[in-house]
Design brief:
- By secondary structure, this protein is an alpha+beta fold.
- The protein has 2 domains: 211 residues, Rossmann fold (3-Layer(aba) Sandwich); 37 residues, no CATH class.
- The chain has 8 helices and 19 strands.
- The strands form 4 sheets. A 12-stranded mixed beta sheet has the order 1-6-5-7-8-9-10-11-15-14-13-12. Strands 3-2-4 form a 3-stranded antiparallel beta sheet.
- α4 packs across α5.
- InterPro entries: AMP-dep_synth/lig_dom, ANL_N_sf.
- Keywords: Ligase.
């Protein structure tokens, strides 16, 4: 029998929940690819609750200079639509949501946790929606395509159900008009998010109508405490409409990766900016759009897949001499994984 875990949590002294840090050969790395492959070390991503007031101990996995000003925290909470009265559903509570968990814990709302990593025989989208209904959730965060798949699976029958949710937060992947309209059948609003474990929530916007003007890949306006710019190869700031590398400054930015000098030098710049490997542009409304990655990765829905890790695993299979993994365009998932084998 499936169990939905409901918790009501209030934490007075809040640090930051660092998502998915794993130890690989003595190095600390973020578990975007590791979560997807589920194969590094013991195969379990570690969720780290780091108290910003405690500088030593086993939880000091990512060195942090977290500065959660009360005003910034409250503004972010307001944008995300989470209040103390919310019944908040999250199907990846210790996964890739970066800054979300700390914000939610700070509010002290009721959380309904559904673990998407547990294999199930039934349709997951239907299972997730049934859990939302049973627990009368009002706010949910999940991957972009879940509600789109749910609409397809039910042949549009959800459109006749009342809008149970006040808000659905989506991030870590592209959102287009079709997905927006699908979510709009079950929620009063959609919150798009640009976030990372290193810098928490960097940009967001709230959409209140499935039919309102919306450009695909838009993540929203910079959040309080965040500064975003698009730069060329010489680090010159570019005007509206130019697609190049995104640089971010954030009051919630971590100070680096432990035991990884090269990654620190490549990622954290002397002016306080962080290079996350994302490419994008600002539109005429001053909203940031993320359209791709500079790094050798494949973006499949909400997951960042590292080709080298997949190639290493596949080449260990009998009869495979060599392999190359690449991403191919796919409308619903942004990219799909394609393996070329010899």
């Amino acid at each position: 029998m499936e169990t939905y875990i409901t918790t009501s949590i209030t934490i007075q002294k809040v640090g930051t929940l660092m998502a998915g840090a794993v130890d690989m050969h003595g190095q600390i790395c973020l578990a975007d690819g590791a979560d997807f492959l589920n194969s590094l070390n013991d195969g379990k991503a570690k969720a780290i609750l780091y108290d910003s007031c405690e500088k030593k101990g086993a939880y000091d996995i990512l060195k942090s200079r977290v500065n959660m000003e009360c005003s910034n925290k409250q503004d972010n909470i307001k944008v995300l639509g989470v209040t103390r009265e919310s019944i908040y559903s999250n199907d990846r509570p210790l996964g890739w949501l970066g800054g979300y968990p700390s914000i939610t814990f700070a509010v002290g709302c009721t959380r309904v946790i559904i673990d998407a990593s547990v294999p199930r025989s039934e349709n997951y989208a239907r299972f997730y929606w049934d859990g939302i209904q049973r627990k009368k959730c009002t706010v949910a965060d999940t991957v972009n395509l879940l509600f789109y798949g749910l609409i397809e699976e039910t042949s549009g029958n959800l459109q006749r159900e009342r809008r149970l949710l006040k808000s659905v937060g989506v991030g870590s992947g592209s959102i287009n008009k079709c997905i927006l309209q699908a979510i709009g059948t079950v929620s009063e609003s959609v919150v798009t998010v640009y976030a990372s474990t290193e810098a928490a929530v960097m940009a967001t916007c709230r959409l209140t109508s499935p039919n309102e003007e919306f450009d695909g890949f838009v993540c929203g306006w910079p959040t309080p405490g965040s500064q975003i710019k698009v730069v060329d190869n010489l680090m010159h700031k570019l005007p509206v409409g130019h697609i190049e590398e995104i640089l971010v400054k954030s009051s919630l930015l971590c100070s680096g990766y432990i035991n990884n000098t090269k990654a620190n030098a490549d990622t954290f710049l002397s002016d306080g900016s962080v290079r996350l490997g994302d490419r994008g542009f600002f539109n005429s409304k001053s909203q940031i759009s993320v359209v791709g990655r500079d790094k050798n990765v494949i973006i499949r829905d909400a997951f960042v897949v590292y080709p080298e890790q997949l190639e290493f695993r596949i080449e260990r299979c009998p009869g495979v001499a060599a392999t190359a993994i690449t991403g191919v365009p796919y409308a619903k998932r942004y990219e799909e994984i394609c393996a070329l084998l010899v």
